[in-house]
Design goal:
Number of helices: 22
Low-confidence stretches: 1-12, 533-539
Structural class: mainly alpha
Helix content: 40-55%
Strand order of the largest sheet: 3-2-1-4-5
Strand content: under 5%
Largest sheet: 5 strands, parallel
Number of strands: 5
CATH topology of the largest domain: DNA Cyclobutane Dipyrimidine Photolyase, subunit A, domain 3
Order of helices and strands: EEHHEHEHEHHHHHHHHHHHHHHHHHH
CATH superfamily of the largest domain: DNA Cyclobutane Dipyrimidine Photolyase, subunit A, domain 3
Radius of gyration: 24 Å
Mean pLDDT: 93
């Protein structure tokens, strides 16, 4: 038995079916494995270098992201072997590894001569295209490839397409209500939403007046598999960003369920009130950190939602906390996936605001000049994580108002976050965060000045910049870039009714102040290394 076919009993024997499982499809009940013949079928999992490097040229996946995928895949393979399944597992260090998923399927077919090949649809456009080419090739060779729809999600591609056809614009709120009605989630018998309101976001904007008491995350033991993949990543991917000093991520079904239990018990009750809050040195607060096991398919979204709803029904958690969490799972998560497949592969190149600035080097080192940026970047470097407000209103907001090129921002989020998968990262950055799609996802840009950060955090009191100033020496760069952003796009946003109130504030700025804002913005771009091209900031 060679390392290439590690775990395959009766090496050289033909397979009934070859069942291909990708690294983000680790669901024993998933479409590719639902009718597996344990005795005769072979399951293929492959660690390939092309995926460790991300989906774009030059992308270096965070060390923790690579290690999490490898550890979860190896644990999943071990659990299948525990059932008696035949597993063909190709390791990253295998000398025969082609480092291409489609090439590994070809190699497995040549070795095992299966009757057919079965897989769940790939979760990104690039892989889908590669497997479509492979399907035609294998069919000619007598190995028909059956691609099954991913049943992990509540909303199918056809259902989202139907929703999109009935709407002039794609708004998550309408989509979210439709999903809740369809699945009866937080609904009353008369068909109205629990509590009489669909969205309780207005109740979820409290900030901390003093240091919060945050329960610790559940401990994930660094077992032999985790230690092995950490050494592997450090050996094979030493120049990738981040580090492996900490380990907070579940990589098995049992660990994922324990993480869900811990969140429901200890953090969900306060999640709603402080959903948008930030506090120095507390990157996790009351957030679930369940996006990683969800995206690996170690958890099912419906089971997660049902647990949260049960916490409300039993009086353990208030409605605003449960509704806010449910909206993240069956609202944004399902909606963003639908947008990804609806918009097409060219969506990632969208640049509606004509932004071409360079992403500063401190996004990788974490050594940013502003306190809020340092606080937002620290857990990204250490854990490949930050919760949604630092992502959207600190990191992405900086990129938006400073005019940084959207594809570069999307690649950075894909590179640095453990929960990054193309269908997640691309619509969230290109659409929601950067308004680079011109309003497909959001009806207006999520642009904010330093006042928002001051209101929702304690960061500004520890910063070298003055949040009270718009321009000049020591002015908060968020203030400067925010007002410069509005000035640059004043004519463009004049056609957006949701920007009318904000744009009226520009009328109060005299010519001298406008010029001072522009000069300070230019100074900050040069200082931070953003270095735009001549066309970068045209309106």
């Amino acid at each position: 038995m060679t390392s290439t076919s590690r775990g395959v009993q009766r090496t050289g024997a033909s397979a009934g079916c070859l069942r291909v499982v990708l690294g983000d499809q680790l669901d024993r009940e998933g479409a590719a494995l639902r009718d597996i013949d344990i005795q005769n079928d072979v399951v293929l999992l492959a660690e390939v270098g092309s995926e460790a490097s991300g989906s774009g040229a030059g992308i270096r996946s965070h060390q923790q992201r690579s290690a999490v995928f490898l550890a979860a895949m190896r644990h999943f393979a071990a659990s299948l072997r525990g059932e008696g399944a035949r597993v063909r597992y190709v390791t990253l260090e295998d000398r025969e590894n082609t480092h291409s998923l489609t090439a590994e399927v070809r190699r497995a077919c040549a070795a095992l001569r299966p009757q057919r090949v079965i897989m769940t649809e790939a979760g990104e456009w690039r892989l889908r295209a590669e497997f479509e080419i492979l399907a035609a090739e294998l069919g000619q060779q007598g190995y028909p490839l059956e691609v099954r729809e991913d049943t992990h999600f509540l909303v199918s591609h056809d259902d989202f397409a139907t929703f999109a056809r009935t709407r002039k614009s794609l708004q998550m709120e309408h989509f979210y209500r439709q999903v809740r009605r369809q699945h009866g989630i937080l609904m009353q018998p008369d068909g109205t939403p629990e509590g009489g309101q669909w969205n309780l976001d207005h109740d979820n904007r409290r900030s901390f007046k003093q240091a919060p008491k945050v329960p610790p995350l559940p401990r994930i033991p660094r077992d032999d598999i985790i230690e092995e993949v950490c050494r592997l990543v450090q050996t094979h991917l030493p120049n990738h960003p981040g580090n492996l000093e900490s380990w907070i991520w579940p990589v098995t079904r049992d660990q994922a369920q324990n993480a869900l239990d811990d969140f429901i018990e200890h953090r969900l009750p306060l999640f709603g009130d402080f959903e948008d809050a930030m506090w120095g040195g507390e990157p996790f607060l009351y957030h679930s950190l369940l996006s990683v096991p969800l995206n690996l398919k170690l958890l099912n979204p419906l089971e997660v939602v049902e647990r949260a709803v049960k916490a409300y029904r039993t009086g353990h958690a208030p409605l605003n906390a449960v509704e806010g969490f449910v909206r993240q799972i069956i609202g944004w998560r399902e909606f963003i996936r639908g947008v990804y497949w609806h918009a097409g592969p060219a969506y990632r190149e969208s640049n509606h605001l004509d932004a071409h600035g360079r992403l500063p080097d401190f996004f990788w080192s974490g050594e940013a000049p502003m306190a809020c940026l340092r606080e937002a970047l620290a857990p990204v470097v250490a854990h490949g994580y930050s919760h949604h407000i630092p992502r959207l209103m600190v990191l992405a907001n900086f990129c938006l108002i400073a005019g940084i090129e959207p594809r570069a921002v999307g690649d950075w989020f894909f590179e640095m976050y453990v929960d990054a998968i193309d269908w997640v990262t691309t619509p969230n950055t290109i659409g929601m965060a950067l308004y680079a799609d011109g309003g497909v996802v959001g009806s207006k840009p999520y642009a904010a000045s330093g006042k928002y950060i001051q209101r929702m955090s304690n960061h500004c009191g520890n910063c070298a910049y003055a949040v009270t100033r718009r321009h000049g020496d020591g002015a908060c760069p968020y203030n400067t870039f925010y007002w410069d952003f509005l000035l640059r796009h004043e004519a463009r946003f004049a056609r957006n009714s949701r920007m009318a109130l904000v744009l009226r504030s520009l009328e109060k700025l005299g010519d001298s102040e406008r010029q001072a804002i522009r000069q300070t913005a230019t100074h900050y771009r040069e200082t931070f290394g953003i270095t735009p091209t001549e066309t970068a900031f045209s309106a």
